[in-house]
Amino acid sequence: MIIATWNVNSLKARLTHVIDWLGEAEPDIVLLQELKLETDRFPAAEIEAAGYHAVAHGQKTYNGVAILARAPIRDVTRGLPGFDDDQARWIEGTVALGDRDIRVASLYLPNGQSVTSEKFPYKLRFLDAFEAHARAMLADATRPAVIGGDFNIAPEAVDLYDPKGWAGDVLFHPEERRRYRAVLHQGWTDAFRALHTEAGRYSWWDYRAGMWQKDHGLRIDHLLLSPEAADRLEASDIDRSPRGREKASDHTPVWVRLADSMPAGAPYGPPEEIAEAAAG
DNA sequence: ATGGCGATGGATCATCGA
Fold first, then answer.
1. Is A108 a known active-site residue?
2. pLDDT in tens, A102-150
3. Cβ of A9 < 7 Å from strand B?
4. Within a 10 A sphere around the Cβ of A135, how many other Cβ atoms?
5. Where is the Endonuclease/exonuclease/phosphatase domain (predicted)?
6. Nucleotide B8: nearest residue by CA–C1'?
7. Which of A28, A52, A150, A221 is catalytic?
8. Which CATH architecture has domain A2-261?
């Protein structure tokens, strides 16, 4: 199954691009950010006509997140648990995945604006709450989980076109990178980075100053896999083609492909059982 | 080079994004 994340920068302005991409990439689950519309303005009919169920958590003008899925989406939570927030930045739900369910979340992490802005401590507070909830999601060992979204964090120097120029600025600030790494250390896997070591692979390019044409971008959109999901990791990549279209979002989709079932013969279980299996 | 571009709401620009 294919799970994708995409900050569309207005679902209304990008609806044709989204519908087209659903047809081309045939993802099973899509996590959208920056809908920029109220929940009751969500284009449910168009999405349904494309073959997808959808749940959304929106608001006027800003933010807004959604989950699209070929299968029904159950047990939906709107808003990041444990974080009192009037901004629509988190939605999670459960979708059937092959031989068992998967828990997925769509995240639009605050940008922070600048280090001196009051929005930067808001970003760090959000990250603290995200860290706590990500840990709680891992504690639910009954099903694999995937968190996808616009994290507004470039994790490492290879993820920016000009790391020296961005050093200490929002999106590449040590305080946010430290918190992002703390989440990875809980046991989450950055799907794209697990399969690609090369520098210069980006998911966002500023509209201004010809950044797209110069390929000056940042990798700030991520798919985090719980250990059970990471065990099923088959492929992950960034699809640059939507960014090159007319009237494109400034972000482009990132996707991961997971095996529908656990690989046969994989050495899962306690060490003594693995040793027994190896001994025949 | 703190500009550049694009979307929104409600206006003929201000605000925000990253």
1. yes
2. 999 999 999 999 999 999 999 999 999 999 999 999 998 678 999 999 9
3. yes
4. 14
5. 4-251
6. A61
7. A150
8. 4-Layer Sandwich (3.60)
